[in-house]
Design brief:
The chain has one domain: Gcn5-related N-acetyltransferase (GNAT) (Aminopeptidase). The strands form two sheets. It has a five-stranded antiparallel sheet, with helices on one face. Strands 6-8-7 form a three-stranded antiparallel sheet. It has five helices and eight strands. The chain has helices spanning about 20-25, 30-35, 45-55, 105-115, 135-140, and strands spanning about 5, 10-15, 60-65, 75-80, 90-95, 125-130, 145-150, 155-165.
Length: about 170
Amino acid sequence: MQTNYKTERLLLRCLNPADAAFIFELVNSAGWIQFIGDRNILNNEDAERYIQKILSNSDINYRVVTLQDAITAIGVVTVIKRNYLEHHDIGFAFLPAYARQGYAFEASATVLADLLKSNQHEIMLATTLKENVSSIQLLRKLGFVFSKEITNEKDVLLLFSITKNDQPL
């Protein structure tokens, strides 16, 4: 997996401690709380601790998505090896002001293409709640296919997958 990516409109870089204010805003957005869950990040100090927890776990990779100005952070693309999944999971979350403008597809497609052409990721997974229609639509646009419903703790999740050979990107 590359460290940084550049697309037509975006830059993607590794999460770092200086992203605390952005992470605070993102994890407290209505969509994050509804579809991902409340992380109890109440201030920038909590956000800094949350970032350190992410950075200290080798199974978690967050790429911060910025506009080409490299200043305006608008979302994240994540790659996580979850203990309840056989393969790595790709995820995405964007601030509401940047929704429905193609940014999530542009950023996720770039990371996904890189992952699938590497020899480390023959299969990529994605999970979402069935109520998260926007994520389901984006996953299908990325080429993911529905595999099955799974239960993780109290959540019933839809599991999607894509293989190196399926990749339409």
